[in-house]
Amino acid sequence: MTPAPAVARDLAPAALALARRFAAGATLWCLSPQWPSHAAHVAVEFVHPVIVGKQALPAEAVTAPDPVAVLRANVRSGDVILAISDARNHVVADVLRRAGAWGADTIWVGAGERPTAGAAGHVLWLDCDAAGAGPLFVRIYHLLWELAHVCLEHKGLLAATDPTECDGPVCITCSDEGRLAEVLSADDDEATVRTAEGRERVDITLLGPARPGDLLLVHAGTAITSLEEEGR
């Protein structure tokens, strides 16, 4: 059995993005609540390469009962979270929707019904029953490992444009679209939030009360939208 053509098409950009993150010092966090052995297998692939001369890369499996709490405490801006699950797994969905506020890129490997558009930075998906897709999942993350190393060996591929730089007619950082933020603490008028750029204080008077863990969109020091009705 081989991965579907759509997966083959999506593997290359995912591997390049992963290699660029590794080259910048990232750690890969591996998560699979339904099949914890897959998370451990992915981490081992990257930490203990089976091919002589390949670079060992930092990766860790997250198997704790509350992966959101573990990842919130450990993920640094620039890291990558790789999840293996079906699209209905609410634990994985909750982790991935927060990853942008932590500054992490995301890769979602799965099968069956596809997740909603934008649920992860890179989606590597199979059109088959997830319950029987285990061997293909292994094939996918073995290929991801191999392609990431190919990219790492070609230094010219590793220079990535900084998406926070203002270069062009629309500045991503300053646009009205907003940046994802996770609330750390809040009072009546302001909240301390975490974004990809770090901690900051934002005005929340437009939205009203906020709780730790809430996800907001912030712009120019102000919370402009709550994502909680959408995400919960």
Question: How would you describe this structure to a colleague?
Answer:
This protein has 2 domains: 5-157, 3-Layer(aba) Sandwich (Rossmann fold), CATH 3.40.50; 179-231, SH3 type barrels, CATH 2.30.30. The chain has helices at 5-23, 36-47, 67-74, 90-102, 134-152, 228-231; strands at 28-31, 59-62, 80-84, 105-111, 122-126, 179-186, 190-195, 198-203, 215-219, 222-226. The chain has a 5-stranded parallel beta sheet, sandwiched between helices. Strands 8-7-6-9-10 form a 5-stranded antiparallel beta sheet. The protein is 32% helix and 24% strand. It is α/β, with parallel strands linked by helices and 232 residues long. It is built from 6 helices and 10 strands. The longest helix has 19 residues, at 5-23. It is globular and about 55 Å long.
Distance between the termini: 37 Å
Question: CATH class of the largest domain, please?
Answer: Alpha Beta
Task: Report the portion of residues in β strands.
Answer: 15-25%
Poorly predicted segments:
162-174
What is the level-2 CATH architecture name of the largest domain?
A: 3-Layer(aba) Sandwich
> Any idea how many domains?
2
Shape assignment:
globular
Helical stretch tally: 6
Indicate the radius of gyration in whole angstroms: 18 Å
User: Percentage of helical residues?
Assistant: 25-40%
Order of helices and strands: HEHEHEHEEHEEEEEH
- The count of strands amounts to 10
Q: What is the CATH superfamily classification of the largest domain? A: Glucose-6-phosphate isomerase like protein, domain 1
* SS-based class: alpha/beta
Instruction: Trace the largest sheet across and list its strands.
Output: 2-1-3-4-5
Output the CATH topology of the largest domain: Rossmann fold
